[in-house]
Amino acid sequence: xxxxxxxxxxxxxxxxxxxxxxxxxxxxxxxxxxxxxxxxxxxxxxxxxxxxxxxxxxxxxxxxxxxxxxxxxxxxxxxxxxxxxxxxxxxxxxxxxxxxxxxxxxxxxxxxxxxxxxxxxxxxxxxxxxxxxxxxxxxxxxxxxxxxxxxxxxxxxxxxxxxxxxxxxxxxxxxxxxxxxxxxxxxxxxxxxxxxxxxxxxxxxxxxxxxxxxxxxxxxxxxxxxxxxxxxxxxxxxxxxxxxxxxxxxxxxxxxxxxxxxxxxxxxxxxxxxxxxxxxxxxxxxxxxxxxxxxxxxxxxxxxxxxxxxxxxxxxxxxxxxxxxxxxxxxxxxxxxxxxxxxxxxxxxxxxxxxxxxxxxxxxxxxxxxxxxxxxxxxxxxxxxxxxxxxxxxxxxxxxxxxxxxxxxxxxxxxxxxxxxxxxxxxxxxxxxxxxxxxxxxxxxxxxxxxxxxxxxxxxxxxxxxxxxxxxxxxxxxxxxxxxxxxxxxxxxxxxxxxxxxxxxxxxxxxxxxxxxxxxxxxxxxxxxxxxxxxxxxxxxxxxxxxxxxxxxxx
Amino acid sequence: xxxxxxxxxxxxxxxxxxxxxxxxxxxxxxxxxxxxxxxxxxxxxxxxxxxxx
Amino acid sequence: xxxxxxxxxxxxxxxxxxxxxxxxxxxxxxxxxxxxxxxxxxxxxxxxxxxxxxxxxxxxxxxxxxxxxxxxxxxxxxxxxxxxxxxxxxxxxxxxxxxxxxxxxxxxxxxxxxxxxxxxxxxxxxxxxxxxxxxxxxxxxxxxxxxxxxxxxxxxxxxxxxxxxxxxxxxxxxxxxxx
Lengths: 555, 53, 179
Ligand code: HEM
Ligand SMILES: [Cu+2]
Prior knowledge:
The complex is a heterotrimer of chains A (555), B (53) and C (179).
Chain A: H1 14-44, H2 61-93, H3 100-122, H4 140-170, H5 178-193, H6 195-209, E1 215-216, H7 218-246, H8 248-251, H9 259-272, H10 289-323, H11 331-334, H12 341-364, H13 369-372, H14 377-406, H15 413-440, H16 459-488, H17 519-543, E2 549-550
Antiparallel strand pairs in A: 1-2
Helix pairs in contact in A: 1-2, 1-14, 1-16, 2-3, 2-4, 2-5, 2-14, 3-4, 4-5, 4-6, 5-7, 5-9, 6-7, 7-14, 9-10, 9-17, 10-12, 12-14, 12-15, 14-15, 14-16, 15-16
Chain B: H1 13-18, H2 22-48
Chain C: H1 19-45, E1 55-56, E2 72-77, E3 80-88, E4 91-93, E5 96-100, E6 103-111, E7 116-120, E8 126-129, E9 133-141, E10 145-150, E11 163-169, H2 171-176
Parallel strand pairs in C: 3-6, 5-11
Antiparallel strand pairs in C: 1-9, 2-3, 3-4, 6-9, 7-8, 7-10, 10-11
The complex binds protoporphyrin IX containing FE (HEM) and copper (II) ion.
């Protein structure tokens, strides 16, 4: 006989829905604006210059690319994630935030940060791309704004932790509900991870851009940056995993296949997603090959929880498909509710993520990185991961979430299906072409339409990039239209408003071992691993700091 | 499906005992074949482009 | 709602891993170990290495003293060359490197201003170029032909035009040129 624990349910209050809704509003606007530049970049590859129409606001490809990277990869993701995991925390724990004011404060700090960052970018005073590698030097406001966005997310995170702590006191013997557990874990990982970029900005870039110090150490800055830069991608990905593990099975009519392995995967992400940053610096000078190899090994180990995820999520879906009458080796796939745009979005996102994973494994493979580092392969890769696995899943989530928080009905689910499929098709074409271009040696971050060295051999692939980008533009526009119409439409009959899908697990989560539901040992392990895998090299670089690179603004 | 094997409230014995994820294994087998093929082809490119030291 | 009901007999906690999934876990680990072994062997036994720690320089003075003050190719032994490349917005100095077929060339690159990239098309030579640091790789050019080296890190408004060329010529032609 198991310890039966009655799990209470609770709907979000109107105030909570509004809180989540504000995050979604900022996130979706950022995505829509930021995504306009993507197709423009892709069309530039075929010499179609749309930038002339944006002058004098947008003065170059690179200024547009900075906006594209910052708005899509940083703003859309961060605002969506904080909003969405607020929802999963309070819904999962079935209790309100302990200190909603803290979370509101976090939101407003993020908004102030966003505006502070946006102004210099729009004024062409921060055309440094979203990685802002020094000694390219942006206006101080850019660095300050980014810091505020991160600090705001920390404040929200603290709001999560306090809420979780209070829930734990009230429920000492209950396994934490998966969607809440995973959201809180993601925030914990984020707080550890962003220490790198916080130190980079506060000790180097901000004082330097303010003129307090004359020069900087670009390689040390890169090491700090990538301390944050890699776990950043897990910060984006884990909320999609929360949905794939904890919600999608319900939407598809099934259950979570393994609660314990789902948690194990998340713990592994917490401990190994940080100490792997040197895999972004495989071809850097100033970092010994031994450390690069160690981080390659650790990166391989962070691939493992994604392999676990592949099994658990697919098995959960198979279970759903069989319950729906699917049979045979693949019949269950057809039996899934493909007509539901939220489900279709996440299934297609998952399919492309399989390919994103293969590319990621390639990038992580030490010397294989020589072939693809900084080539078009890399954007080809991460448009499968962050721009599809994550973004298309998030879009799928908004297809129930925006109706839920606004009390409306999704406008035209059929059009939403068109949106989802055009994203998939456009991305297949776009990303395949980019991968091939990369293997042929085409550099990233380059308006290839203007480059003098482009051989004839690349042209077909450049054209395919542009075609994929155009299809994606259609998809983005449809998405914006659906969101706008849904949010501004009339209130629906409460019966017709979707609820929050929460998947049960096949086995009672109370049977999941206790060690998979305790933060302390894992946080300690994460800290130890970081010290071991980063400590010595970071120490060498910090103690050997040479501030000899002055700032430049060559745009 | 057959009779439940254990009577355990909260544990869906029927489902856990009888659901064998063979379709999942099939999909993953294709996935693994694709990994080996694609990753392997990049590895071959590395070998064909000459050593760097 | 919080405490276990008094009549509950505790049931053992366990991972409860499905046997199929257990096998998948084992298999995934084997696959990753095999791949890691393959890249490690290629890297440390066969010589497909990535750049490492080389030397540091002061970007302000590289053009005044030291090897980067005279960028270009030098022969250091029969069949062996070294080349010092300075990257700056928006060109490489030298913009052309001529070597005979079969030459083993050690390439040192640094930057006078911002970060750049240095990738020689169709070869495994690929380096991040960071001011204050020297990037180094050695490569043997076995095929005759032209191999562009392209800047692959955004370095400013003229980034797309930043490239150079390695020309690998037959040994006889190289002698004639009297290089
Ligand atoms: C609407 C569809 C999209 C298209 C057609 C598109 C296209 C592109 C292209 C062509 C580039 C490469 C530019 C270059 O390297 O010169 C790029 C870069 C990038 N994209 Fe997208 N993109 C799209 C959506 C997204 C989304 C949704 C995200 C993230 C959530 C995203 C994140 C990025 C990032 C982070 C970069 C790198 C920027 C940099 O190198 O600094 N993109 N995109
Ligand atoms: Cu450059």
